[in-house]
Amino acid sequence: QVSSILMRGEVLSAEHLMAMHGFLLKLPKGSQRQRLFFQLLVEFAVTAGDHELAMEFLVEAIEEVEVRDLMWLEFCPLLEDIRASKRYVELHGQLRERLLGARTLTTKSV
């Protein structure tokens, strides 16, 4: 049902977003597919105008699913509406620190 809604160019309801969320939780934790689809879920929630739900999904994506796409977080135009939120700024900093810290450790060990 979700795919047919998207194919028609319609916005997903909170109910559809939560159903999609439930499906994503069944995927292997931290898998590339789960991370990608969580990113899409955040985008769908923002597009639906549910910024609170989008932030909940974003928190889960970064803290639990281990989304680590900093370029997406910084440059995806669909996320523009939530970038000013305090929680977004915190999550961005957390992810940036985690990724740059890992990069520093890798560079030092070489």
What does this structure look like?
It is a single chain. With 110 residues, the protein is mostly helical. It is 70% helix and 0% strand. Helix 2 packs antiparallel against helix 3 and helix 4 packs parallel to helix 6. The longest helix is centred in the C-terminal third of the chain and has 24 residues. The N and C termini lie far apart (49 Å). The mean pLDDT is 89.
Keywords:
110 residues; mainly alpha; 6 helices; 70% helix; 0% strand; globular
| Rounded average pLDDT | 89
Helix-residue proportion: over 70%
Task: Indicate the multimeric state.
Answer: single chain
The major pleated sheet works out as: none
Question: Whole-number radius of gyration?
Answer: 15 Å
For the termini, the CA-CA separation is 49 Å
Question: What is the helix tally?
Answer: 6
Layout of helices and strands:
Blueprint: H1 2-7, H2 14-25, H3 32-47, H4 51-63, H5 70-75, H6 86-109
Offer a concise description of the structure:
The chain is mainly α and 110 residues long. The protein has helices spanning 2-7, 14-25, 32-47, 51-63, 70-75, 86-109. Helix 3 (32-47) runs antiparallel to helix 4 and helix 4 (51-63) runs parallel beside helix 6 (86-109).
